[in-house]
Amino acid sequence: MTKKWEDNFDALLTWLDPDREKAGRKYEEIRHSLIVIFEWRGGYDAEDLADETITRVLRKVPEIVNNYEGDPALYFYAVAKRLAYEVSRRQQARVEIEDPEKLRAPKVNDERNDRETEHECLDKCLAQLSPADRELILLYYQQDQPKISYRRELTRRYRLEPNALRVRVHRLRAMLHACMNNCLGKPK
Amino acid sequence: MEEAIFPPTAALMKDIERERLLIRQYLLGELDEHEREQLEQRVITNPRFKEEVLITEEELLEDFVNGTLSPRELELFNRMYSSSPAQSRKVKIAQALSRYASEQSPVVQPVVHKTWTRSLFEIFSTKNRFRRFSLAALITVLAVGGAILVYWLTSQQWRANYEALRQLNQAGSEILQPDSSVVSVSLPALLLREGGGEARNITISRQTRTVQFRRPVPSGGTSSFRATLKGSDGSEVFRLDDLHARQIGPDSVLVLQIPAKMLTSQDYQLEISERLPDGTHGRPSTYPFHVTGTP
Known about the structure:
The complex is a heterodimer of chains A (188) and B (295).
Chain A: H1 3-16, H2 20-40, H3 46-64, H4 72-103, H5 108-127, H6 131-141, H7 147-158, H8 162-184
Chain B: H1 10-27, H2 33-45, H3 47-66, H4 71-80, H5 85-103, H6 116-124, H7 129-169, E1 182-186, E2 200-203, E3 210-216, E4 224-230, E5 236-248, E6 251-259, E7 267-274, E8 285-292
Parallel strand pairs in B: 1-3, 2-8
Antiparallel strand pairs in B: 3-6, 4-5, 4-7, 5-6, 7-8
C-alpha cells in the first residue's frame, strides 16, 4: 500500500465523516451496499467489483472532496454503475464461451457430495448460534401450517412484533450465510 | 423503509406492501433502468432500506424453495439467480437450510399452544424484577379493589334490607297476615325487666319473607316507640324510631315487621322502649329469641 493510497484513504474517511469511528462504519456500509448491488445485477465476483469501485473513488478523492455536494455514497454509486456497465459487456463474452459447460447437467455424485458438504457446514454454522437462535431459525423453516398463521404463532411464542421477528430471522440468516460462504469456499 | 409504527394504519400497511412489491420486482429484474437506479440509490444511502431489500430477497428465496412462485416469477427467478455463482449460492443455501430444518423436526420442540395454567405458572415464576414488582402491585390492587367491592356489595345489600324494613313499618303500611311467608310472634305487653324472659324459638324457612312481632299497648295511647334489634354479640342490627301502635280489631297493637333476609341462625334481643315527653326513651323491654333456619 503506497503512501499516496494511505493519504487518499484518510481523505476518503474524513470526507465520509469527521468522526473516525463513524466514518469507518459508513465506509463498511457503503462497501457492503456495493457488494449486494453487484450481486443483484448478476455480477461475477461482487466483492472484487466493490473493491474496484472503491479504488476508483480513492483515486478521485483529492479532486472531488472540496467541491462535491451531497451524500458521498451517491458518488460511489455513480462509479459502480459505470463499472457495472463495463463489466456487463465483458461478461456477455464470457457467458458465450462457457455456455456449453453451463448446459452440462451436474453428475449425481457431484450433487450428493455438495449436499453432504452443505449439511456439514450447516451443522457447524448452526452450532455457533445460541440454542434459542438455533431453535428460532429452524422453527421458522419447519412450518407445516399456512405461513401466516405459523408466523403469527412464532411471534406469540417469542413475544416479538411481526416485523421484529422478520428482522431477527434475517440477521440470523445473514450470519448463517456468511458462515456458510466461509465454510463452502468462494462460489464457483 | 422506515420502521412501521405500531399499530400500523391501513394507509401505512398499503405503503409497506407497495414497497415490498417494488423490491420484489427489482430482484426479479422487472424494473426499468430508471426505477432500478432509484432503488439502488436508496440501498446505498439508507441502511434500513437495504435491510428491507435483503429480507425481501430471503422471502423470495423461501417462496422459490417452497414452490410457491407463479410461473412467470419462477422464470424470472431462474434467470436472475443463475446469472452468477453468488446468486446461485444464495439459492443453494436456502435449499440446504430448508432440507436441514425438515430433517431436524423430531429434535426441535414443536410450537406449543400454552394452556392458561402454564402461562400463569410462567408469570409467577418469572425472575424479571420489574415483572415481579408489577405482579405484586397488580395483586395488591386487585385485593384492595376486591375488598372494596365486597364491602360495597355488602353495604348495598344492607341498605336494601333496611329500606325494606322501613317500608314495612312506616305509618299506614300493610299489616301482613300470618301465612307461609309471614311468621308472626306475639309478645307480652309487660315483661319482668330482670332476666329478660325466656327466649322464643322462631323457625324460618325458604318461603319466609317476613317475621312479624305483635305487642299489645294500652288503648288510647299516642306514644311512639323505638325498636332495637341486637345480635348475639350485642351489636345493633337495626334501630327503628317513631313506631306507633296499630288498631287491629278492638285492640291496640304495636306491630314490628322484619324482612327475613335480615335474620340469620343466631340469638337475638329485641328491645322496645317508649318515647318519653322530654324526647328521651324509657328503659326498654327486652325480648330474647333464637332464629333457626335461613330464608
